Amino acid sequence: MLRKTLFALVAAIAVSGSSAVSAADTKSVEVMHWWTSGGEARALEVLKDGLKQRGYAWKDAPIAGGGGEAARTVLKARVASGNPPDAIQMLGFTIPEYASQDFLTNLDSIAAKEGWDKLVPGPIQRFSKVDGHWVAVPVDVHRTNWIWANKKIFDQLHLTPPQTFDQLVADAAVIRKAGYTPLAHGGQPWQEATIFDSAVMSAGGPKFYSQALVNLDPAALGSKTMEKAFDQMRALRGMVDPNFPGRDWNLATSMVINGKAAMQIMGDWAKGEFVNAGKKANVDYLCFQYPGTQGDFIFNTDQFATFKKSDASVPGENAFASTVMDKGVQAKFNQIKGAIPARLDVPSDGFDECGQKSMADLRTALKSGTMVGSFAHGHAMPDGPKNAVYDVVTHFFNTNESSADAVKQLVDAVNNAK
Ligand code: BGC
Q1: What is the model's pLDDT at position 101?
Q2: Is pTM, for the whole model, over 0.70?
Q3: How many whole angstroms from 211 Cα to the centroid of ligand 1?
Q4: What are the entry keywords (predicted)?
Q5: What angle do CA 34, 90, 294 make, to 5 degrees?
Q6: What number does the ligand 1 atom closest to the CA of 338 have?
């Protein structure tokens, strides 16, 4: 009901012509995003330059807050007041949510002209297209089941990437004894959820992950396997430092870069921070999969949608979409951002070993149908159940609740939110 009202409001403003000046008039595109860390901001420059080359200025509308929750809140408010940005970074289920209310520009003609159907992996198109129409354009493929490690600490303690979760626990004890924090973590719900992506995959594999977090099957959610995922979360909680609450993700990454902490479990946007600090893969830092998820691919793709305005021609929006999908732009952007291109035709040269590994693993997972969407970043379930699961995971991480109780909470929370 509220959504319908919002749409009516925006439509009325658009008809009366009193909306914010359109992109076509100003030759600029206002872009809302949450890329405010050092690495993210540097990657963004590539998109800005690409747009400039197409004759449009980039009007920056950054909303700080990793994972984008703050940006989504601001977007809601701006849409409610009839003043959405021209373009916005969006994740997963947020795209169909806005598209189904008819807010987003149809990008079919530019998609057909540039052949996007053949270039973008199916599991990503599932969010870029709604009812068969392109409404969002993907710029990257991030992966959440990564661990980033300080190589000097690993070498000093004669550690190699742990292959099992038990080995990770044993390594953490060695690291702690040597005076380092085993795990750099920022206590924010989305960061705990990001770790949970890996814990669920490690406990049960891709089929279980999908049954539980995509299909929301109560039997999988309430299973002993899910208890194991919470057991892993409990063990990880024991590896953090006392100052973790509220810490931003990039400050946690700095702890690994500066040698205060040995590891961080985080999506590969963390690599963007290493790149920005001039650090090199396998020289200064190690990248490896969370134990038990080797070869598995939990994806999180940043897409951009453009909002319908009173001006039907929206040339700025098309130039913007074309910039985001540009082959050269995607290569350059992702080498800085830490992700890999959303286009499958970008060559892997120019990417470091972590990037090349991700590119190879993505293709394997695509073939075997095991490329699964990140729960933490909105690609597994819609916002309602997602927020409910966030609460359960964060509550568990920050209390002494038992895994058995957490699993019961999980089943109830999802049931109530469905
Ligand atoms: C986005 C990444 C971003 C990260 C931290 C994720 O939700 O997909 O692009 O770097 O949040 O801000």
Answers
A1: 96
A2: yes
A3: 25
A4: Signal, Transport
A5: 90
A6: 10
Q: Which residues line the pocket of ligand 1, CB cutoff 6 A?
A: 34, 40, 66-68, 91, 142, 249, 269, 300, 302, 377
How many angstroms is it from 223 CA to the middle of ligand 1?
30
From ligand 1's centre to the CA of 67, what distance in Å? Answer: 5
pLDDT attached to residue 19: 38
SS (H, E, C) 108-160: HHHHHHHCHHHHCCHHHHHHHEECCEECCEECEEEECCEEEEEHHHHHHCCCC
Overall domain count for the chain: 2
pLDDT in tens, 35-48: 999 999 999 999 99
CATH code for position 74: 3.40.190.10
The string of pLDDT tens digits covering residues 131-146 is: 999 999 999 999 999 9
> What is the pLDDT at residue 193?
98
Q: Write 110-119 long-range contacts (CB < 8 A, 24+).
A: 110/134, 110/318, 110/321, 110/322, 114/322, 114/325, 116/325, 119/325, 119/343, 119/344, 119/345
Q: Please state the atom number of ligand 1 nearest to the C-alpha of residue 140.
A: 9
Atom of ligand 1 lying closest to residue 40 CA = 10
**Are residues 401 and 356 part of one domain?**
no
Q: Whose CA is nearest to atom 6 of ligand 1?
A: 67
410 and 357 in a common domain: no
The verdict on 183 and 293 lying in the same domain is yes
- 230 and 100 part of one domain: no
